[in-house]
């Protein structure tokens, strides 16, 4: 049994490697941006001073995080129930299992970092802000994991005729770039040197633009061949619009146009609503695809 699983893993790694050889130019730029961000962040960690911790506890923000953690249990439970039903069926479907797995992991990560946020959140002083306010390392670590998964949740349903490992290999560059720009922007807010801090923030925003370009390239290659393309296209536009609002609120907070609580409330509400919407859409795409398949078989 162990040899069988090792053979499957080796075959999956080979398939993943073969898929990376056909990356588009936009995907290659995302990968280059990822490597550059990693090297830049490591250099800053080694050569520059990180600012002090945030000593105060904002009780209203802690209550907000605690409420978010409780709310997220509901969609996680529904996804787990769907996954158990699918796993116990006579013929479990790969797309259904992948959908459940990604959704469960996404909400599991969210519950984890909101639980940690409600306990203090590992706050640092935001050195780029105009006032004394926290920036929570726990949230940005959570985004480091959750944002790439959200990209996969949003784009995986577009590709109806490819296996999971093939889609993962194609989306790997923009998922990696999105994870590293979270790291870059957080580090840009806590490093003491203002020039280095804003350089990191600008580089993180530039990496986000590269991710958007690669996403447009990926969508244009597959959107016309997928089922219900209009709905899937609108969901991608909604997700990108919310990401633009994330960036805008983050900059407004740094420039003093929004309070710390207002920023955290926006992040929390959009975190829950956007990811719950993307999860619901994934299951809707799955059920619509199954209905079309059954109709084709009947004909």
Summarize the structure in words.
The protein has 299 residues and is mainly α. The chain contains nine helices and two strands, in the order ααααββααααα. Strands 1-2 form a two-stranded antiparallel ribbon. Helix 2 packs parallel to helix 6. The chain is globular, with a radius of gyration of 20 Å. The chain starts with a helix and ends with a helix. The mean pLDDT is 85.
List keywords for this structure.
299 residues, mainly alpha, two-stranded antiparallel ribbon
Helix percentage: over 70%
Q: How many beta strands in the DSSP annotation?
A: 2
The whole-number mean of residue pLDDT values reads 85
Specify the overall morphology.
globular
Unreliable spans are none
Largest sheet: 2 strands, antiparallel
Give the amount of beta strand, in percent. under 5%
Total number of helices: 9
Alpha carbon gyration radius: 20 Å
- The ordered string of helix (H) and strand (E) elements is HHHHEEHHHHH
**Ends apart, CA distance between termini:** 41 Å
Q: Tell me the structural class.
A: mainly alpha
List the strand order in the largest sheet: 1-2
Structural topology:
Blueprint: H1 2-20, H2 25-47, H3 59-88, H4 94-118, E1 123-125, E2 134-136, H5 137-155, H6 164-190, H7 194-222, H8 229-254, H9 260-298
Helix pairs in contact: 1-6, 2-6, 2-7, 3-4, 3-9, 4-5, 4-9, 5-6, 6-7, 8-9
């Amino acid at each position: 049994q162990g040899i069988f699983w090792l053979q499957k893993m080796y075959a999956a790694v080979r398939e993943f490697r073969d898929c990376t050889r056909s990356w588009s130019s936009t995907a290659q730029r995302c990968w280059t941006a990822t490597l550059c961000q990693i090297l830049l962040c490591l250099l800053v960690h080694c050569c520059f001073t990180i600012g002090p911790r945030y000593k105060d506890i904002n009780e209203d923000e802690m209550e907000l995080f605690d409420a978010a953690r409780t709310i997220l249990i509901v969609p996680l439970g529904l996804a787990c129930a769907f996954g158990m039903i699918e796993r116990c069926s006579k013929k479990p479907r790969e797309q259904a299992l992948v959908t459940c797995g990604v959704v469960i992991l996404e909400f599991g990560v969210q519950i984890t970092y909101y639980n940690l946020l409600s306990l203090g959140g590992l706050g640092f002083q935001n050195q780029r802000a105009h006032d004394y306010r926290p920036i929570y390392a726990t949230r940005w670590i959570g985004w480091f994991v959750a944002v790439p998964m959200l990209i996969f949740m949003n784009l995986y349903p577009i590709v109806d005729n490819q296996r999971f490992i093939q889609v993962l290999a194609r989306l790997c560059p923009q998922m990696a770039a999105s994870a590293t720009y979270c790291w870059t922007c957080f580090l840009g807010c806590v490093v003491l040197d203002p020039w280095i801090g804003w350089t990191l923030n600008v580089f993180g925003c530039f990496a986000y633009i590269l991710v958007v370009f690669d996403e447009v390239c990926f969508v244009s290659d597959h959107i016309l061949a997928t089922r219900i393309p209009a709905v899937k296209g609108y969901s991608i536009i909604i997700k990108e619009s919310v990401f633009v609002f994330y960036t805008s609120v983050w900059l407004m907070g740094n420039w003093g146009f929004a309070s710390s609580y207002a920023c955290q409330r926006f992040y929390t509400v959009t975190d829950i609503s956007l990811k719950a919407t993307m999860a619901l859409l994934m299951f809707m795409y799955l059920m619509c695809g199954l209905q079309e398949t059954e109709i084709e078989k009947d004909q």
